[in-house]
From TrEMBL:
Keyword annotations from UniProtKB, A to Z: DNA-binding, Transcription, Transcription regulation
Record has Oxidoreductase as a keyword: no
SUPFAM superfamilies: Winged helix' DNA-binding domain
PROSITE patterns in alphabetical order: HTH_HXLR
The protein, known as: Transcriptional regulator
Highest taxon of source: Bacteria
All residue ranges annotated as the HTH hxlR-type domain in the record: 1-60, 131-228
Source organism of the structure: Lacimicrobium alkaliphilum
Pfam families registered for this protein in UniProt: HxlR
């Protein structure tokens, strides 16, 4: 476990999310602090907490409330809203539109090839560590599970669609689809009787993962180099290209680190 932790910390430093600072000389001890790049993921962390609080089993160890401090402290219910019209984001309110001036090099439902690279096995969680976010990590902590979920967000529903677009091995795909059905992220529906064929549809629980997924997408758009793509996302409520902010559901302001605390009561 120490070796795994050390590797993860080194990776996060190499990618610019953490920096190391010595706080003790003998023996040398270090602490790891978030960089500006790491801090910029704070809205996504808030959305992870919000989803886990709403959908995880009742025995999770998360704080039951976030408090937004300021003039008048109040409960914080993080919401993902459109940056233009400020309406809360819902999966059914977003449309995928072709961009005319970008070369179309892929199928309308296909995903970037880089999404299907290194394979990872399903995460194992030791029984002696904090599992506060275990429910959501079971979904997004595995590359292939996340990829299948992302595929569903762009319209993939059938086994062959996932198989042909994601470049995923048949046994891994079957396992990840079963996981997502068991976790009630997908429901199964028969669309052909002989032979029997099933399609996998997002449940309301599955659709509720869309805002936190789009929060991470927005981080990529804001922080990473731009990447041309033949399709864009449009918020149907206002007609603008989809850009999002995470705001406090009570006051409408964007929560800042240092202005939010956990209420453990």
């Amino acid at each position: 476990m120490r070796g795994t932790l050390s590797n993860r910390l080194e990776f996060l430093m190499a990618e610019g999310f953490l920096h190391k600072k010595q706080y003790q000389n003998r023996p040398p001890r270090y602490e790891y602090r978030l960089t500006e790049k790491g801090l910029s993921l704070y809205p996504w962390a808030l959305m992870l907490w919000q989803w886990e609080s709403e959908w995880a089993p009742g025995d999770n160890a998360l704080p039951t409330m976030l408090v937004h401090q300021g003039g008048n402290a109040h409960p914080l219910n993080p919401q993902c809203v459109c940056r233009h019209c400020r309406k809360p984001l819902h999966f059914d309110d977003v449309e995928r539109v072709k961009v005319a001036d970008v070369a179309d090099t892929s199928d309308p439902k296909s995903l970037p090839e880089s999404w299907g690279g290194q394979r990872r096995t399903r995460a194992k969680v030791s029984g002696d560590i904090d599992t506060s976010l275990a429910h959501v990590v079971d979904i997004i902590g595995d590359r292939w599970t996340t990829l299948v979920l992302a595929g569903s967000f762009v319209g993939l529903t059938r086994y062959d669609d996932f198989l042909n677009n994601l470049g995923i091995a048949t046994n891994i795909l079957a396992d990840r689809l079963k996981i997502l059905v068991d976790m009630k992220i997908f429901s199964r529906r028969e669309y052909q009787v002989n032979p029997s064929r099933m399609e996998y549809l997002l449940t309301e629980k599955g659709k509720s993962l869309y805002p936190q997924t789009m929060t991470l997408r927005q981080w990529v758009l804001d922080v990473m180099p731009p990447l041309a793509h033949p399709y864009k996302l449009v918020h149907k409520s206002c007609g603008h290209d989809l850009e999002i902010d995470v705001v406090c559901g009570v006051c409408g302001k964007q929560p800042q680190i240092g202005k939010v605390r956990f209420d453990l009561d």
